[in-house]
Structures
1.
Amino acid sequence: MQNRFQAKTLATLAAVTLAGTALTACSTESEDAAEGSGIIATTGVWADVAAAVTGEDVDAIITGDAVDPHHFEPSAKDLSRIKEAATVVANGGAYDAALYTVAEQDRIVHAIPLLDHAEHDHEHAHSDHLPESLDELEHAWFAPSKVREVADAVAQRTGGDAGVVDTRIAAIEEKLASVPHVHIGMTEPIAAGLVWGTELHDITPEEYVKASLNHQEPSAAAVSAFLNQIKQGDIDMLFVNPQSTNSATERLAAVAQMKNVPIVEIRETSPAGESFLDYFEKIVDQIVEIANNAEPSFHHH
């Protein structure tokens, strides 16, 4: 039964976009504490958000950065803990579907729409760099509004207080809204939710974006076009995921360094010992500083 479920899950995941994971170290070693509180998260990032609301440690099934959630094979114990929890905090989409699909849907707090067992073959190659809805972004934790939505939902279910999260997210949104118009490139679309609705204009070559979304190797032509943008000074900063590199991303980062193009590292997981909200604030502060110091140019909107 479990093998059939895993096979189906993996088939689903293979067909869907995923660019990475977002996990932090679990905030507590005590499974009893998590089970006692009646709330559990699929990953460390969402455990951090929930803990900021409840004021208590929230356990996560997938912790650390050793495993990609898309390939995570839950144990019978993992699935049992998900089933038994009164509230499951999940990302949604294909990202952590191997876990949340065993829970009753009305117990799940999620950032993006849930998949059911039968969903598969969803096409993610968009003609535009950003899809039409934040619900289509797999990395929902980098979309400030999604973090707020999850925090508010956790507060409603648990009687906690989302005020701290709301305040910190509002400050992040305010900072991002103040960013002047600059051009960015992304070696993978992990930060799509962060740049959504801002003046951070993603000009990554379309062919490269499509390959990245579909987890294919970008063509030599796509990489060359991206390299040329960097060499010609068209890009003000380059977003790189240091936990997901290949020869193409390494070349792009090397050329950016050579051309003094600032590199923003956006990890799939918060660094060990750092909460997700702290990490999110740090990334945004870095982006704002780079954007404000970018040389004025004749970028077209």
Note: Strands lie at 39-43, 59-62, 87-90, 108-110, 182-186, 200-202, 237-240, 263-265.
2.
Amino acid sequence: MMTIDLNCDLGEGMGNDSQIMPHISSCNIACGGHAGDAASIIESLKLARKYSVKIGAHPSFEDPANFGRLRLEWSRSRFRESMTHQLNLFTNVLSGVDMKLHHIKMHGALYHATAHENSFAEWTVEWLQEFFPETPIYSLPNSLLHQKCKAIQQPFIKEVFADRAYLNNGALVSRTKAHAVHETIDEVLNQVLDIALHQKVRTSEGTNIDMFGDTFCIHGDNLKLVENLPKLIKQLNHNNIQIAR
């Protein structure tokens, strides 16, 4: 049976962490940028410990009003200041409960800026090398960030998306567009099977493109999917795919 890593963004105030955590193997916990505070981090960590889920920090643009989905004009110093502040909050809480950081994953607009924009990608690699040289970052395969991490051997985990639509160039369909998010079990199941078994994904434009990754993401704010997550896991098992533990 094939084993895959399934990750989810949590601690974002959706109130459904307890529904999701039993079914995933990695979590990305908001650390104060778009959502989250020390109390919410602790609650998410308790659930992660209970279900043996790997722990990731999920920093973002500091813009809770827009849930971190609006790109902000940040300088290098502003980026470093914010990342350090958010990760200090997260790692201080972690150490207080004797738990370890497994990975870092940027959120929303910052995820895309760091993946595709040269300045943000450079700042990210520089910051990681200084503060987290042995900690993997989850991001898009073949992105600019992937290339820069590979060049200096910064640990990198290629992330693909179970519940997001792709464009022909391998980028994600913008959330401002219709059908950017897959909400039905069939859509998500078919996409996971295509990527896991065939290293392909069918784009929103009707083309099959190469797609491969080390971890699959679902979103905690995808409420229809969350409600049916046990059914998705069952269907994956029927197709000889299990979630890593």
Note: The CA atoms of residues 34 and 65 lie 8 Å apart.
